[in-house]
Amino acid sequence: MATSSEAQREAPPRGLEEHFEDKPEGPISAAIIAGGIGAVALGLFTTLAAANESIKDWLDLKSSVGPLSGKTLYAVIVWLVAWAILHATMRTTQYETRRAFTIAMVLVALGVLGTFPTFFEAFEP
To answer: Which of 40, 41, 50, 103 could bridge across to 78 with cysteines, CB 3.0–4.6 Å?
Structure first.
């Protein structure tokens, strides 16, 4: 049998639900999807650097690091821009977080595929 103090902890006080409004999940979904876009951008830059020598040279921002410096920097820029755009467009929407997570996982899988040597080496000239 529950004591009166346990019953008070289980049930919220009356009227409390009126003080807390449901916030839209659009900003959360935007951040999740933007992470997937950043991952696919890294995979794309990795594959393009292997496929084209001029892109590889363009991505070489610091010669001691090589094209990895450009791949990661530009992938972060793509991620930030995607996050800003998605946040601006989704900030007031009720977007299902589960769907955003599924989209992000597909994008991350594509991004990881693009960074596997057996994949991007297939595009080398």
So the answer is: 41
Closest among 32, 61, 69, 67 to 47, alpha carbons compared: 67
Phi and psi of 38, rounded to 5°? -65, -40
Q: What is the number of other CB atoms lying within 10 angstroms of the CB of residue 92? A: 9
CA distances from residue 104 to 5, 40, 47, 84, 98 in whole angstroms, order as listed: 43, 10, 20, 16, 10
Whole-number Å distance between alpha carbons of 20 and 50: 52
Who has greater pLDDT, 23 or 109? 109
Query: Structure pTM?
Result: 0.78
pLDDT of residue 36: 97
Q: Which of 67, 89, 68, 86 is nearest to 78 (CA)?
A: 86
Q: Above 80 in pLDDT, residue 4?
A: no
Q: Residue 66: beta bridge partners?
A: 62
Tens digit of each residue's pLDDT (9 = 90 or more) over 64-75:
887 788 999 999
CA–CA gap between residue 55 and residue 70 (Å, rounded): 10
